[in-house]
């Protein structure tokens, strides 16, 4: 090798660590892939695209990519297996935590760096516009048709599925669980009366509620929703939606485990600013979900707590659950 070539090679090797550090300090200097593990049009997709627009105003180019399947596990597996450089992120949800609790996916929380919580989403029981008038009428309908009433959920063995099970248990009968790859498909089939009921978020169903295609019967929460103040909680309707303890449906930003600390801090800073922006807070109010300021280590502790609750509740609910027919 010539002296010139040796000199060039030596310069490249010496400069490599410095270039790596510079890339981190200037992060992001190219577009970020944000994987939403659900179909387009669902609540998580809608929230991701709202954040995409807000982040773009800060000079961060984020491209939303839908990768539905296996109750979120397919998309999040892509995130877990991506390079740990911060340029591939994903939307984690309680649904995937429920899958982990049921050992239905090889994914583990340790495979991710937790960035920021995007939303806390209450869930509702909905029926078509000419369905039963209230929860008691729906439970009476289930009792009169044991094992035949269909309830649609985005995914299976998740919080939506748990609350569908709780509804059937309140009626004391079996039912037909109909899982879908995302909320947009559930609400479309509910509007078209292909299923008799659904467990969904307000953000997935508000448009169809306002248009009069579907109606909410009750909220699986401890208080009424500001966006739908006339809809009672299950407790108000005389039924316990949390017989095994409280549950929270949430969505949050994740990156692969092991990203550099400067990149982690930059992502936390950018998403915190976007989530706490007046534009996103107004978006949250319009779509009926709650926003808080939970990021980094605090979010990590919250996810561990939710995982523990789902490990306990999920095993009790699905141990004797009705199987899809």
From TrEMBL:
Signal peptide: 1-22
InterPro entries: BUG (IPR005064), Bug_dom1 (IPR042100)
Sorted UniProt keywords: Signal
Pfam families: TctC
Keyword Signal: yes
Family in the record: Belongs to the UPF0065 (bug) family.
Protein name: Putative exported protein
